[in-house]
């Protein structure tokens, strides 16, 4: 799966493509790396064992499960993570963290901090859902909770709960042992829009941060270092303006903005043949006019321009502007554009990945039940992919390369954590809260995300993250080495220049209407922890099905 191969660069669920990505697998995995020597300090081993047994305890397992299920039930999409923010913020405040809301000019963004002094360890993960993602968890065919509604068809409901469990366990040991250091937890708001992290960087959220421990849901337990090999992007909406007229009575007096949109799209689709193989472009028409008998005065089209390096992304942007200019000339309209999101291709830190990998080997994969396996295989059958079930060992070697040659990069998804990786030493953990079945951004990817599969994946992930944080707290030489790699290896390749310009602002209005439309119906299914221990129990009460429900096929 690409989560293994490209964990750094590929949000946007990567789980789907793995068995079929063999060419990339060969290309990206040639250079392994041995794990670093483990600490011989008995105090380090003792405190790590303490933290590990805390995270593994039934109480902490249940806390992770409850947060995971609650965020799943909210199903909120980018910039609308209101209930998620309230719920997690309250929980963190109750546990001694100070929480700042509305960071970087984004109302649903927040940063929680506890402790003082160095090192500053920042735990991050995405938090938003996707459109059309509504799905009853534990049902192995398409069965939305609310037809047409958004949901966690990417699995972003699991990562911040994972981080909170890890940070609470680390905090307890720090308090007891009086260890210096600061723990920071932050959510990747609107990741599916690549909408927030460049603004976090610009607002100085990571100014005093030593390391970022990032995670993303996947189908296995892994990390990697170096060039992520994936795509970055700019997301731009082009808006054209013309003049209305009676479409039948006096069409010659109108100037159609919709014509401009269609000509821009046509131009782009011809030009596509002559772009590098590593580019990926997609668009939706966000405004196609009002009604046919009124010549459209305004029309808009929203593009994602993806490429594998900064210069190529800027070049795509330039070509996009020329297409807009040409379309405006042909239609006697005017055009303007707005940046809605951006992401740098990622680069993960070698020292942090080596440290994390040693802990991955220690923790290992969860033990899956027959029910877990039945759900995975039934979903794989429905999705017409190999019935490989769930991840089992052994854990593979650590992968990474400082630089992957251009000719080995084929493009793919993006994650705006890329911007953070060029500002702070960062590593990403992929944890097995899902299985390989759905195509990503799809209801099928939501199926396991509030079941024991996700709960177990979150708990093993939290153990790895907590153990890695303990290493960084207790072994300052690791933080120094991570900084050394960042400054003397990674930044020797190139320096960060944001895609966003000084006047650009986060597009926080996005998804407002969609969420307002579906929230009243979705609210009926918010997880009620006063009545149910798990969300599956609530599903049984509300819909009358049990885990796992398999057997029906999707047309
Ligand atoms: Zn993602």
Description:
The two termini are 26 Å apart. The chain is of the alpha/beta class and 555 residues long. 38% of the residues lie in helices and 16% in strands. The protein contains 16 helices and 14 strands. Mean pLDDT is 93; it is low at 1-35. Helix 4 runs antiparallel to helix 6 and helix 4 (58-74) packs across helix 13 (452-474). It is globular. Zinc ion binds at residues 11-12, 126, 154, 156, 191, 216.
Task: Briefly summarize what is shown.
The protein is of the alpha/beta class and 555 residues long.
| Count of separate DSSP helical elements | 16
Unreliable stretches:
1-35
Beta-strand share of residues = 15-25%
Please provide the count of β strands. Answer: 14
Distance between the termini: 26 Å
Q: Which structural category fits the helices and strands?
A: alpha/beta
Strand order of the largest sheet: 2-3-5-4-6-14
Largest sheet data: 6 strands, mixed
Fraction in helix:
25-40%
Query: What's the order of the H and E elements?
Result: HHEHHHEEEHEHEEEHEEHEEHHEHEHHHH
- The Cα radius of gyration reads 23 Å
Bound compounds, please? zinc ion
Shape summary? globular
**Mean of residue pLDDT values:** 93
């Amino acid at each position: 799966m690409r989560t293994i191969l490209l964990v750094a660069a590929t949000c946007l669920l990567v789980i789907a493509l793995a068995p079929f990505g063999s060419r990339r697998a060969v290309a990206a995995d040639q250079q392994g790396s041995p794990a670093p020597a483990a600490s011989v300090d008995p105090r380090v081993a003792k405190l790590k064992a303490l933290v590990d047994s805390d995270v593994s305890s039934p109480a902490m397992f249940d806390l992770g499960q409850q947060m995971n299920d609650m965020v799943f039930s909210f199903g909120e999409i980018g910039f609308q993570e209101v209930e998620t923010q309230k719920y997690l913020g309250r929980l963190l405040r109750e546990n001694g963290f100070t929480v700042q809301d509305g960071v970087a000019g984004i109302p649903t963004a927040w940063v929680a901090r506890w402790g003082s002094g160095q090192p500053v360890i920042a735990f991050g993960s995405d938090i938003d859902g996707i459109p059309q993602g509504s799905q009853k968890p534990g049902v192995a065919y398409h069965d939305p909770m609310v037809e047409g509604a958004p949901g966690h068809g990417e699995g972003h409901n699991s990562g911040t709960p994972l981080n909170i469990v890890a940070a609470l366990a680390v905090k307890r040991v720090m308090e007891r042992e009086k260890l210096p250091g600061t723990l920071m937890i932050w959510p990747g708001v609107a990741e599916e829009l690549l909408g927030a992290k460049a603004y976090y960087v610009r607002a100085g959220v990571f100014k005093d941060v030593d390391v970022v421990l990032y995670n993303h849901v996947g189908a296995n337990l892994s990390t990697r270092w170096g060039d992520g090999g994936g795509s970055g992007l700019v997301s731009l909406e082009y808006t054209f303006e013309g003049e209305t007229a009676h479409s039948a009575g006096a069409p010659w007096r109108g100037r159609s903005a919709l014509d401009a949109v269609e000509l821009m799209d046509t131009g782009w689709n011809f030009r596509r043949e002559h772009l590098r193989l590593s580019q990926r472009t997609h668009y939706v028409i966000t405004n196609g006019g009002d009604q046919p008998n009124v010549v459209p005065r305004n029309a808009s089209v929203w593009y994602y321009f993806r490429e594998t390096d900064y210069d190529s992304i800027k070049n795509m942007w330039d070509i996009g502007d020329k297409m807009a200019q040409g379309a405006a000339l042909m239609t006697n309209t005017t055009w303007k554009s707005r940046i809605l999101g951006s992401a740098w291709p990622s680069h993960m830190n070698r020292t942090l990945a080596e440290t994390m990998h040693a802990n991955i080997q220690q923790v290992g994969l969860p033990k899956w039940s027959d029910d877990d396996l039945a759900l995975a295989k039934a979903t794989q059958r429905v999705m017409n992919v190999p019935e490989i079930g769930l991840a089992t060992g052994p854990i593979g070697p650590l992968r990474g390369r400082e630089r992957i040659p251009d000719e080995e990069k084929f493009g793919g998804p993006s994650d705006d954590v890329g911007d953070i990786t060029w500002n702070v030493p960062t590593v990403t953990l992929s944890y097995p809260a899902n299985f390989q079945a759905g195509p990503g951004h799809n209801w099928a990817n939501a199926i396991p995300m509030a079941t024991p599969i996700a709960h177990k994946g979150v708990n093993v992930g939290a153990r790895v993250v907590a153990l890695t944080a303990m290493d960084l707290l207790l072994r300052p030489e690791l933080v120094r080495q991570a900084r050394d790699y960042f400054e003397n290896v990674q930044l020797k390749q190139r320096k960060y220049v944001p895609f966003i310009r000084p006047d650009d602002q986060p597009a926080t209005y996005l998804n407002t209407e969609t969420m307002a439309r579906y929230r009243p119906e979705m609210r009926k299914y918010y997880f009620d922890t006063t009545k149910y221990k798990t969300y599956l129990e609530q599903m049984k009460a509300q819909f009358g099905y049990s885990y796992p429900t398999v057997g029906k096929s999707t047309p």
